[in-house]
TrEMBL record:
SUPFAM superfamilies membership: Composite domain of metallo-dependent hydrolases, Metallo-dependent hydrolases
EC number: 3.5.1.91
EC class name: hydrolase
Protein name in the entry: N-substituted formamide deformylase
Domain (Amidohydrolase): residue spans on this chain: 51-490
PANTHER family given in the database record: IMIDAZOLONEPROPIONASE, PROTEIN LONG AFTER FAR-RED 3
Keyword terms, alphabetized: Hydrolase
Amino acid sequence: MQLTLTNARIPGERGLIGSLINVVITDGIISDIQFVGATGAISLDFDPAGETIDLGGRYLIPGMWDTHTHFTSWSMLLQRLNLEGVSSASEVGERVKARHVTHPGTMVGFGWRGSLWEEEPHFSILDAACPDEEVYLFSGDGHSVWLNTTALEARGHAGHPTGLLVEDDCFAIWGSLGDLSPEELDKAVLEGSKAAAARGIVGIVDFEMGWILPDWRRRIGNGNDYLQVEFSVYTENLDRAIETGLRTGDTIASTEGLLRMGNYKLISDGSLNTRTAFCHDPYPGLTGKHARGMLNTSYDQLVALMTKASSAGINCSIHAIGDDANTFALNAFEEVGCDGTIEHAQLLAWEDIQRFAELGVVASVQPEHAMDDRDVADVLWEGRTDRCFPFASMLDAGVKLTMGSDAPVAPLDPWFAIASAVERTRDTREPWHPEQRIEPQAAIDASVRTRVAVGQRADLCVVDIDPLYASVEELRTMPVAATFNGGRLTHNAL
């Protein structure tokens, strides 16, 4: 099957008529690229077979990948209480009270960030707003959950002093909530897949907790073919993956090549907003055992589990946010000698940046987090933010970057990530540590896996504005005219 895209423009050659090209796609692969004459007209010897789509001089780039998502959780956000942007614990209580009136029953919310609030989260605030139903409110970073008394009792935490559970206690609740049926979940994920394709996305790395292989196989079998999906496994399912014979990169049968085995995911430390990211220096005002944050996994456990996974052909993805957590993760990669990624890599010791490159460890980063966290980082990581989200320094050292969203922690939109990496601001304020800005082409390269070249898979994104010359606002609102996944049109706004 052949498809030809005519009158496509190459980014970075603004105003040059000669940059128009015709791209021939055969069986999902780019089989030919023809440059159009200086007049901008299709050359006389060009006689395409099969279907043609005129791109009308729009810009053609590779299709986007989001390399860190929790896709089902993101897809369910519209079904749940949105707490993004709340400014106080009491405002949360007001929203819970209003939601309880219109949506009785178990309540799940997401998105609050309370590190700089004057009043700490407490179960009594939620009890006053909703005393008779279970309430679970996850923080915007996903590392803490705020419960009312009814929920605490239902989850075996009766008598908890605050109602705020962090890290493993939080993750246990995250993975067990079943307020939607599989049919409802699949419907939400289908709409989420369409929304992702509409932003130019052709593939995701899904770090959703649980054994999600059958979920995605079922979804693809039922017609959700908008995305390529690499699914991960956590410690509780590592043995299952090994016994099944899965190795990183394996394509799952009966999924049209869309579903592949990804990496083993291990969460080594916490997060900045929860003050559990494991750091070399203590957090302001904290003393005692967890003054520097929390290690969810000891170094010896980290090495043992990474060895187990890599010996079975499964690469490792290690969540590390604090500088000490990143050092430990790099030490483990060096000791085990395996391939993989460090997810987030937000705060780094200067000497560790070069180690990423030397060890070949990929830094899987989420630039939108830099915008979410800039204010709290200036407080909790005061004096260290010059090495916080150090994208330019990593690229200069030869580190391979891949970019994603960590949705639902940030919106699943690659253009948000690109804009934040390029400008390090998203409002009228000055850029935050502008020395760590990167060029638009570098940001795009970190967001794709293919090139517009003969022999490459036809994963393509068509945009109305040249991304190499776009303003930060134009990048964040980039009009996506079409998305092709292996030559299939998965989004069309031409």
